[in-house]
Amino acid sequence: MKLAAIILIATFMQVSAATFGQQLTLNQKKVTIDEVFRQIRKQTGYDVLLIGSKINTENTIDAKFNQAPLKEVLDNILSGKELSYTIDDKTIVIREKEPTIFDKIKSILSQITVTGKITDEKNQPLPGATVQVKGKSNVTIADKDGVFNLSNIDENAVLIISVVGYEKVEIPVNGKTTINISLKAKVSALDEVVVGGNVVPITRRADINATDVITSQQLENSPVQKLDQIFQGLVPGVASPDRGSVSTFNGIGLSIRGSNGIASPTPIKVYIDGIELAAGSTFLENFDKSLIDHIEITRGPSASTLYGSGASSGIIQIFTKKGVDINQLNLQVSGGTIESKYIKGPVFQQVHNISYEGGKKDAFTFNIGGNYSTYGNYIPDADEKDRSIFASAKSVGGPVQIGFTLNYSNVDNGVGTNPILSDNIYPAAVRNIDKVRYTTNDRLLGTDLNFKFAKWWQNTIVLGQDYQEWISKSTLPTVTKTYNYYDYQYNTSSIRYNNAINILPDSSAFKFNIISGLEYKYLLLNTVTATGTSAPIDGSGTYSSVGINRQPQKSTGYFIQLAPSYKNVLFFNAAVRFENNSLFGNNYGTAVSPRIGVTGNFHIGNDLTLKPRITYGKGTTPPQLYYKTGSIGATSVILPNPDIRPQYQQGFDYGLDGFLLNNRLRFNITYYNQKAKDLFVEPSLGKDTLGRALYQYTNLQSAINTGYETELTYHTQHLNFTGTFSIINSKVGDLGANYTGTYVTGQQLVGTTNRTAGLNINYSFFKLFKGDAGGAIAMNLSYMNGVYTYDYLGYYKYAFGHDGDPRGSNLNNYLTTYQPVTKLQLSMNYRLNQKLSCFFQANNLTNSNRPEYQNITPLKGRTMLFGIRSALNFKQQ
């Protein structure tokens, strides 16, 4: 037994001697720790493994090691850090020190209660200020006198104090039990960072575009569950009429500054974390708003220069939540009612969200979760189920940062009988027979890589793939005596690279930035249609006719932007994009999209900053493949036009932004004057020998889009107020000498409105109970003048022989302006403590049933939602 002990001791001493007998020689100033580890591997043969370490290997030290033992080198590097190391089979493992029992007891004994008062620079209390322990979930709200109280916090904790309109500060506790803080007003809202119509983040003071931001708090407070409806009244120049669940392609109604198409607005280009959605805004309603950090909406064609064809009206950029370095489970459970004039009594709706976010400080963060929602039959035999899962992550710190986004959503919508058509059109004997099921799927996957070759040289690569599908399975004996199956598949893959170079140093009065990049995109649209007389609704069975159509699209774009500035006051921007697209006509060549703009920031007196801006931009929209190649149907034929050109929109923005009263009051006014040319039209060319109608798409018409956009924001400690008002003039322009259709110059474009407005008021009130309680109430009023579109109900009545309408069988004769629509929304939220809050939301409080986009589409009435939200912190970092 003694012999065995002697052998073990001798072996341990031999291993220790072998380990710490290893020596390192390195003499170099400001050498990175990463290089020291590399030298350790090279000179000693020992590998270095970092496990959950807070050590930043890019930090530098002055290395003065002359045949220094390995232990001495490691102790020097890790000195003063909460780290330990072990050596296992020629591997040095560095990890965070595990707290001892003594450390844990000490931590408990060192917890204290901190009280204090928060004031402004004039010693006035700041009620409603948030006080949070850094890295923890402990949080409280200052009362009406600016006084706060935080219990059971570490004596070495750091407090984060924030309030709207003031600079956020971090205050070390250092064992103090009373801390009074004076906050400074924010220097300028111009230093807010946006991406806007640029591919890299910039400050608002340098942005030449008209850009609005919707925050996650605004999304959370909104009673609107469908994302395409969020913008109404909240963003100037944007119209998003409700098309109803029984309608298809709801996002098509969403428009920015009217329309650049003659028949209806074209879908808006949408990006999620830099990944383009295959069908644009067409299926935007299916995206779960709970996973969004913020949304940026850039209005006008200037974004096309950097984002390519299809962005001639503007773009929508969605940035998802990437998590925080606090391991936390977020949960929302809610239920409520939907009212409708088409059924007796309200029906049930439920909206549930769950997510888990966490990560490691200075390493990476992540956010994973999902959504499940159902909406009851607000029309007979209807139902809807929405499901989604998502995951996102990002690395933080260091010269290389990587982001990841994954999202899957499924919406299954059973329509049943349309009560408007059933009551007004269908004969009584065959009512309540039609059945339709719509299913939409979205699968999005992407990653972005950001890396710096130098402090002044930023590079970004974005890889993305998005697949969107819409399926319709219908049993329609009352309308066409047929059973139909439709499947539209949008599939896009893209890669985009851009780099930003700052030529002059930050200390220079003059600065000169260059952004350049390239993009390749492949889009495939597959359309499958099938019609039969006995096939069931699930899509199986035998169909009398089946059609499959493939529309591939390839595009390559190159851009460069020059952005000089002077003293952070004057900013100039000049950019151009060259794009080739397989859908452009055979003889068209390369599309050129320039933009040029200038803005400045001028301080007037002590409290007013004005930011005028002027921008010119041009963007293109490619034709559909069948415009170019033609198609043959049973009753009509579209003749090919191999030389069809893309349509384009160009024009100016003139804007003025203002900031005053310590940035509590902000306003912006924009006038735009843009013209869309070479619009796609399909004039009738008679009939062929088989009696089929002949058409051919060509470029004939133009449209003129002009208007005013205004926005006013004012906030105090408790009250936030935002108002918007827009005048939108979308008119038919020059029709061309060869035009033979029914449109006339000066006529309003179909699918557009000419007025929108909104009023949003948010009031945060004091705690009703002791502790960390507090609440807020928000009211939103939106107004949209009637959309100019078709009287579908009148047309259907004529088609089914109900009356001898003098407008006849030509649908264009049924163009009309719908009645204005005003909607009132209400939201209340009350936080009971740090982990639990309850809320109430009501949409369409006035129970309006006026049609907004199609008068044969039933709309929901008043909706109400009650629920709780919980944030559970599982592990303190």
Task: Write a short abstract of this structure.
The protein has 877 residues and is mainly beta.
Could you name the ranges where pLDDT drops below 50 across 5 or more consecutive residues? 1-20, 246-251
Distance between the termini: 46 Å
Helix content percent band = under 10%
The number of helical runs is 9
Q: What does the radius of gyration come to?
A: 31 Å
Mean pLDDT: 84
Helix/strand structural class = mainly beta
Shape: globular
Please state roughly what percent of the residues sit in beta strands, choosing from under 5%, 5-15%, 15-25%, 25-35%, 35-45% or over 45%: over 45%
Largest sheet: 22 strands, antiparallel, barrel
Total strand segments: 50
Question: What does this protein look like?
Answer:
With 877 residues, this protein is mainly beta. Helices cover 9% and strands 52% of the residues. The chain has a 22-stranded antiparallel beta barrel. The longest helix has 19 residues, at 2-20. It is globular and about 95 Å long. Mean pLDDT is 84; it is low at 1-20 and 246-251.
